[in-house]
Amino acid sequence: MNRNDVTEKIIAAKVSKGITWEEVARRIGQSKEWTTALCLGQMTANAEQARALGEVFGLGEEEQKWLKVVPYKGSLPTEVPTDPLIYRWYEIVNVYGSTIKELIHEEFGDGIMSAIDFSMDITREPDPKGDRVKVVLSGKFLPYKTY
């Protein structure tokens, strides 16, 4: 057994039970975005969160232990993604990445936006022309230091 096996079991149980990530998130007291990343193998659970996920998804003790192991981060292959939704994010970064970089550097200076001290919020915005996906990414600015 490994973390990928636990992820697959979580996804199968979610589908079987017909529950949403938001419902799961309420059970562990975290955002739906962070909870989804945890369940998909990209975050580390504490003991209480692992226990709660064990109850939700029917995970045994050994499976719960895997939720507490720090994962190897990065769920995407190194080649260009083929899933249409994920590819659009790849496309956004390809088209707007240099603009985002330039504007962050102009506003904050030489540094990066943290993906560790970070939050994300995904919501639906009703629109008469078709609902819109609103994604807000917020990361701490980390300046490069001189030494």
Would you mind describing this structure in some detail?
It is a single chain. With 147 residues, the protein is α+β, with helices and mostly antiparallel strands. The protein folds into 2 domains: 3-67, lambda repressor-like DNA-binding domains (434 Repressor (Amino-terminal Domain)); 84-143, 2-Layer Sandwich (Cyanate Lyase, Chain: A, domain 2), CATH 3.30.1160.10. It is 50% helix and 18% strand. The chain has 6 helices and 2 strands. The protein has helices at residues 3-17, 21-28, 32-39, 47-57, 61-67, 84-108, and strands at 111-125, 132-143. The protein has a two-stranded antiparallel sheet with strand order 1-2. It is an enzyme of class 4 (lyase). The active site is at 88, 91, 114. GO terms for molecular function: cyanate hydratase activity; DNA binding.
Q: Uncertain runs with pLDDT below 50, 5 residues or more?
A: none
The percentage helix is: 40-55%
* Discrete helix count: 6
CATH homologous superfamily (4th level) name of the largest domain: lambda repressor-like DNA-binding domains
Beta-strand portion reads 15-25%
Shape: globular
**What fold name stands as the CATH topology of the largest domain?**
434 Repressor (Amino-terminal Domain)
Pfam family, one: CYNS_N
EC number: 4.2.1.104
Domain Cyanate lyase C-terminal: 75-147
Active site: 88, 91, 114
Features:
alpha+beta; 6 helices; globular; single chain; two-stranded antiparallel ribbon; 147 residues; 2 domains; 434 Repressor (Amino-terminal Domain); Cyanate Lyase, Chain: A, domain 2
